[in-house]
Amino acid sequence: MKKILNDPYAYVDEMLAGLVAAHPEHYRLHGDSGRVVARATPGRQGKVGIVSGGGSGHLPVFTGYVGKGLLDACAVGDVFASPSVEQMADAIRAADRGAGVLRLYGNYGGDIMNFDMAGDMVEMEDIATTSVILADDVPSAGPAEADKRRGVAGMVYAFKIAGAVAEAAGTDLAAVTAAAQRAADACRSVGCALTPCTVPQAGKPTFEIGETEMEMGMGIHGEPGIRRGELRPADRIAEEMMDILLTDRPVGGTGRVSVMVNSLGATPPEELYILYRVVKARLEGAGAEIVMPLVGRYATSMEMAGVSITLCHLDADLEGWLEAPAECAFWKV
Amino acid sequence: MKKILNDPYAYVDEMLAGLVAAHPEHYRLHGDSGRVVARATPGRQGKVGIVSGGGSGHLPVFTGYVGKGLLDACAVGDVFASPSVEQMADAIRAADRGAGVLRLYGNYGGDIMNFDMAGDMVEMEDIATTSVILADDVPSAGPAEADKRRGVAGMVYAFKIAGAVAEAAGTDLAAVTAAAQRAADACRSVGCALTPCTVPQAGKPTFEIGETEMEMGMGIHGEPGIRRGELRPADRIAEEMMDILLTDRPVGGTGRVSVMVNSLGATPPEELYILYRVVKARLEGAGAEIVMPLVGRYATSMEMAGVSITLCHLDADLEGWLEAPAECAFWKV
Amino acid sequence: MAGEVDPAGFDRAVLAMGLARIARHMEVVADELNALDGQLGDGDLGVTMVRGSRAVAPALDDLPPDLGKALMTVAQGFTKSSGSSFGTLVATGLLAAAKELKGRERADWSEVSGLLRAAFKMMRTRGKAELGDKTVLDTLDAAATATVGCDSGPAVLDAARRAVEDTMDRMRDAPAKIGRARIFGEKSVGLDDPGMLAFRRILDGLAEG
Amino acid sequence: MAGEVDPAGFDRAVLAMGLARIARHMEVVADELNALDGQLGDGDLGVTMVRGSRAVAPALDDLPPDLGKALMTVAQGFTKSSGSSFGTLVATGLLAAAKELKGRERADWSEVSGLLRAAFKMMRTRGKAELGDKTVLDTLDAAATATVGCDSGPAVLDAARRAVEDTMDRMRDAPAKIGRARIFGEKSVGLDDPGMLAFRRILDGLAEG
Ligand SMILES: Nc1ncnc2c1ncn2[C@@H]1O[C@H](COP(=O)(O)OP(=O)(O)O)[C@@H](O)[C@H]1O
Ligand SMILES: Nc1ncnc2c1ncn2[C@@H]1O[C@H](COP(=O)(O)OP(=O)(O)O)[C@@H](O)[C@H]1O
Ligand SMILES: [Mg+2]
Ligand SMILES: [Mg+2]
Ligand SMILES: [Mg+2]
Ligand SMILES: [Mg+2]
Which end of chain C is least crowded, N or C, by CB within 10 Å? Predict the structure, then answer.
């Protein structure tokens, strides 16, 4: 795993320096820690703020999604490590426009503890906060323990949907929180890893895997999956992933579904499109109508090879919010 | 190099099937060969057409850049192989809106021969064609033989600029061709590879390189570069690349320059941003003002790890065209 | 240390001395903690403890006399320096103790058990773990119980160390149920919980001259 | 083959027979061509020739009597089936010959030299290579020259084969100056140019019964 970097301990700070230098129209650093990214142009006064945060190494997640119609601010941890409580509190402060702040992030113990404690801190400064926690990674826990599932690419849908609601005039913290929760509940994801990635400070791959193996259900930090075996043909991989997703939550309701076919990093878009044929056929075969398919790199693990598929089961509200305008350096709707 | 695919011989056709299925609002297949992608909504009658083409495996290049303000159609070859003459002729036909067609592509012998011959074929059908050939890869030939240089990521600037001119009312084939030539002349690129990629049909990596080595100046198909050596720190890599670019063409004229820091595939955006710090500092140190920096995956070689940097030296016209609206599935301006 | 020795209690000077000892010892045991955490998690626990103690160090020479405020200062060192779970839990525990001691410049050693209990409760709320999940909480609970009625520094320390040791022995073969270690499931059986070991090493640090 | 044998010239039947022989032989030499191209390029030259001949095959049984149109048909097989340089060059050469023979149902063997020359010129224009660049053009030029005045099929074929062989021997140690092989620079020294070998194998195919 070769990486282009300087001092591994400066990886995140240098990355952020480059990010804000390249996109000053989108991002600015806020506060003293150097680890809080906020919108270059803050949302209007009275807008509900949305903040996220988590470990680095997942661009565009999390920081990349700061932007109009998306997040207001983000706390940035070291690679695959939670930001500190202080940084999260600072991010909440940056996101606050006087109407309270939604904390919207993934289901990881450290992030939860820190965001909770950060919330306690800003409470003393009279900033009201709520939380919605993404737990969309189906293979990471069974349906009975669905609240233990990890948060992965479904986050992107939640950012987009909550962001649209927060942007609309007259929506309060409760409304934004409720919409975010509906988005979080609507998402199901599954990942499949082909190679590990390397955390710069660790200097060695996150896990080992054979030259011709794949691991179904693996997490974005290399958390063990549900099946390791020989690399299968693309169509069979797609079938297995769709089986997992549609078993956990069949197409229902309006039948309208958005789907994300996401590269974990190194896997090129060519391969995503090969998979998409089957994903589309399976969804349509299950009676679904596909809305705004997303094929590309939306939530990654640096140079990990592999893919994830996320379904976002829509209703009319969610669909409208998903399609509302939004803009950051990585995604324009 | 693990790949998610089915039959390697079906790689390109399945990729295209997925591409048009995912983005029917942007792309459609044209003609019988299954290898010509055209805009879903053709440009207005009387618009100058712009066509490109070349081997697959470089998404978004070439096909991805079909879209409003960009290309009208594209002929798609096998991975790293030229499309056939027939396919190119079909692409020209698809791009023709009655005002002639500019062929805009990279400096590779096979592509040139085939596009020339395709031009001869459509000439009999009264479609006027012109050609502009990108030759922006500085290390691939010295300044005295600059016309032998390969075409790489500079293509994206040429697509964008020519596309903007063609979209404007009242521009004819000569004007679009001249603008494209100015864009092509304005671009300089250099690449640096860390790992090879695998052509599906070949089944083995395009070249071999040591675990801790990099190759400066390597081409996007693995063409030999100018220096192989130990992987250097990011800042030194960026310095070396900027040296190469600025020696070949110093900042001059208006001093306004757009820069693209491009991943060859597997290299994640985190690393591009680390490089961008130095790229920006070097440009500003040379008196340049940076316009619309592009940091991301704009021209790739599947899962190759490495980066390229492209400078596009602007004048007022070029800058205006670069910033004009454009839209495809991979890029919105 | 100009004042007389007060065998029954402690003030900010004693607190500062204890923290300095812990800080020194963390440098010694950092690799051990990283290694154990590396087997079940991300291998940063030693780093977390070292960074936290180093962040606190500059403040030790003039801690506020108010023990509550002093402990608050120490807690902040941990919330700023790292985002790791254990750092946040340490900060949470310190804040709980700080609340108990707010406005007081001196406390009895016999109060330590109650402080440990307060820390335990707030950390349990923060981390949503239960007793038996094989986390630092199990050792903290045992220490709080074992130190009830201990009315000298050495007695407190002795009882706490023994309780932590026993708990670790007792729980070694249980599976971890929370945090990163949980995902390794069976792999955690037979291995100490890194957070428990960190707590033990904190007590070891206090015991070292 | 119902008509009498015409030793001085050829028509579409002779053309079809020759093309069928070439097609058969390409299947035999495909691996050899792929392997040589693989050392200096992308290793697809055998594939190009096989695909091209297979694409032409269905048309051979009823080629148009007009030799110009017949050659056009053959050329199209190559423009459709592959995008490789050699396929396009073959098609270009065939088109050049087709232009020369347009409207004629028969040609003299003595005209072949002129047809080769026409092909050479158009291929040179198309590929922008020069004599000496170590491409198929060098062998084509030599064959065109060597066949001047040859007025029977065997004489033409013999002269062409000898010329191609000699040219390959002569140029083997020169560096390639065009196409993919160019980027391998010195590596091409000592190796035959793949396109030259392909031309030689085409002639071999014609010579095989
Ligand atoms: N939710 C929790 N409740 C109580 N203790 C916890 C919790 N999560 C982690 N721990 C303790 O923290 C230790 C790990 O700390 P640390 O290495 O900082 O975690 P991480 O690096 O995963 O954020 C564990 O061994 C355990 O004792
Ligand atoms: N520009 C050119 N002019 C003349 N001959 C050429 C040219 N380019 C390639 N060739 C010939 O074609 C051969 C390679 O053909 P092919 O394998 O089809 O090329 P590629 O796969 O690179 O497109 C070379 O050995 C050479 O003889
Ligand atoms: Mg840890
Ligand atoms: Mg950690
Ligand atoms: Mg070839
Ligand atoms: Mg080829």
Answer: C
Whether C99 and chain A come into contact, CB under 8 Å, resolves to no
The one-letter code for the residue type at C81 is: S
Q: How many CB pairs under 8 A join A and C?
A: 59
- A26 carries an active-site annotation: no
Domain of C92? 9-207
Q: Tell me whether 0.95 is exceeded by the ipTM.
A: no
- pLDDT at position D180, please? 72
Chains near D with 3+ CB pairs less than 8 A apart are B
Per-residue pLDDT of chain D (209 residues; tens, 9 = 90+): 445 678 899 999 999 999 999 999 999 999 999 999 988 878 889 999 999 999 999 999 999 999 999 999 999 999 988 889 999 999 999 999 999 999 999 999 999 999 999 999 999 999 999 999 999 999 999 999 999 999 999 999 999 999 999 999 999 999 998 877 676 777 889 999 999 999 999 999 999 86
Q: How far is CA B133 from CA A163, A299, B146, D174, in A?
A: 43, 36, 12, 29
| B229 CA to centre of ligand 4 in angstroms | 35
- What domains can be seen in chain A, in order of their start residue? 9-184 (3.40.50.10440), 187-322 (3.30.1180.20)
Q: Which pair of tokens denotes residue A282? A: 């399976």
Q: Is B110 on the interface with A (CB under 8 A)?
A: no
Nearest alpha carbon to residue A102 among A44, A156, A154, A165: A165
Give the count of beta carbons closer than 10 Å to the beta carbon of residue B264.
27
Interface of A with B in 195-234 (CB under 8 A): 195, 211-212, 214, 231, 233-234
pLDDT of residue A153: 98
CB contacts, 8 Å: C92 with chain A: 113, 117
Distance CA B156, CA A330 (A): 17
Q: What are A284's two structure tokens?
A: 């349509």
Query: For B205, phi and psi rounded to 5 degrees?
Result: -55, 150
CATH for D76 = 1.25.40.340
Asked if the structure places residue C1 within a domain, the reply is no
Query: Does D79 fall in a domain?
Result: yes
Selected catalytic residue, list B26, B30, B221, B313: B221
Q: State the total domains in chain D.
A: 1
Rounded Cα distance between B20 and C179, Å, is 43
SS3 C195: helix
Please report, to the nearest 10 degrees, the dihedral formed by the alpha carbons of residues B106, B108, B110, B115 taken in order. Answer: 30
Q: Locate A156 and state its tokens.
A: 């992107």
Please, are residues B318 and B161 in contact by the beta-carbon 8 Å criterion?
Answer: yes
* Shortest Cα–Cα distance, B277 to chain A (Å): 5
Q: Indicate if the pLDDT at residue C48 is higher than 70.
A: yes
B310 φ, ψ to 5°?
-125, 135
* Nearest to A26, CA basis, from A13, A14, A39, A36: A39
Question: Chain A: residue nearest C83 by CA?
Answer: A84
Bridge partners (DSSP) of residue B76 are: B54
Q: Could you confirm whether B58 is annotated as catalytic?
A: yes
Tell me phi and psi for residue A56, to 5 degrees.
-80, 175
Q: What is the dihedral of CA B198, B203, B208, B210, to 10 degrees?
A: 80
Residue C97 lies in a domain: yes
Residue among C91, C128, C183 whose CB faces A85 most closely: C91
List alpha helices for B97-206, DSSP H.
109-123, 154-167, 173-186
Q: Which two tokens stand for residue B219?
A: 């081409």
Question: Considering CB atoms only, which of A81, A219, A224 is closest to C83?
Answer: A81
Residue D1 falls within a domain, yes or no?
Answer: no
Test C79 with A117 for CB contact under 8 angstroms. Answer: yes
CA of B132 to the centre of ligand 6 (A): 22
Task: State the sign of the Cα–Cα–Cα–Cα dihedral D174, D175, D178, D179.
Answer: positive
Q: Does D81 touch chain B (CB under 8 A)?
A: yes
- Threshold 0.80, pTM exceeds: yes
